[in-house]
């Protein structure tokens, strides 16, 4: 642009519209720098620290909105709070405002219904039983069972033989060639065999406890023993008398054989009961 003053030509610089879009610094106009108050930034940093302590850290956008700033401003304050710095930055003039309280969505805590604990019954200490020494095991002498069996079998065989021989006594008065019948000989052997089997039943069967069981056990065995003893005693006495034994010997002899069989049988019974008791 050219102007003329008093004949002098002065050339002025030409300014285009594009130059108005350049920063004021390029046009020779320097923008005033205003330092933002430090207390606003510190409030923002403290607000972020409080949100972290509450396990709900604020984002840069949320922090900026609290102080009516932008998201970049909020991120800068968060970075300063993390680094522990508080440098002031150049920004547009602003009036300190009270920060908005962060909105925290309350979450309903489900109520838990607790049942009253059942009363615990007091345990009473169990009565202490006095220390009782265990009974010492009864030791059966070695060979006791064998001797009992030998005595029982010997007494039984002798008693059976004596009762069978009793059936041959009439042969002295009978015609020559006479023999007792088989039935009478078997019948004579029944009584001592019955006594033998009754003792075996007593010693080998696991009987139940109780009055009636004991009555059946010992009452039955007692009846068999008594009946067979009476009959067998008469047969043996007559046999000994026919063989020439005296009156006393004839009456005592049957007791020896039948007594040996009975005592040996009860010895076996006692040992079997002791074995069952130890097993229980």
Automatic annotation (TrEMBL):
<feature type="region of interest" description="Disordered">
    <location>
        <begin position="41"/>
        <end position="63"/>
    </location>
</feature>
<protein>
    <submittedName>
        <fullName>Uncharacterized protein</fullName>
    </submittedName>
</protein>
<feature type="region of interest" description="Disordered">
    <location>
        <begin position="81"/>
        <end position="135"/>
    </location>
</feature>
<feature type="transmembrane region" description="Helical">
    <location>
        <begin position="181"/>
        <end position="203"/>
    </location>
</feature>
<keyword id="KW-0812">Transmembrane</keyword>
<feature type="transmembrane region" description="Helical">
    <location>
        <begin position="146"/>
        <end position="169"/>
    </location>
</feature>
<keyword id="KW-1133">Transmembrane helix</keyword>
<keyword id="KW-0472">Membrane</keyword>
<feature type="compositionally biased region" description="Low complexity">
    <location>
        <begin position="101"/>
        <end position="110"/>
    </location>
</feature>
<feature type="transmembrane region" description="Helical">
    <location>
        <begin position="242"/>
        <end position="270"/>
    </location>
</feature>
<dbReference type="Pfam" id="PF10935">
    <property type="entry name" value="DUF2637"/>
</dbReference>
<dbReference type="InterPro" id="IPR021235">
    <property type="entry name" value="DUF2637"/>
</dbReference>
<feature type="transmembrane region" description="Helical">
    <location>
        <begin position="215"/>
        <end position="236"/>
    </location>
</feature>
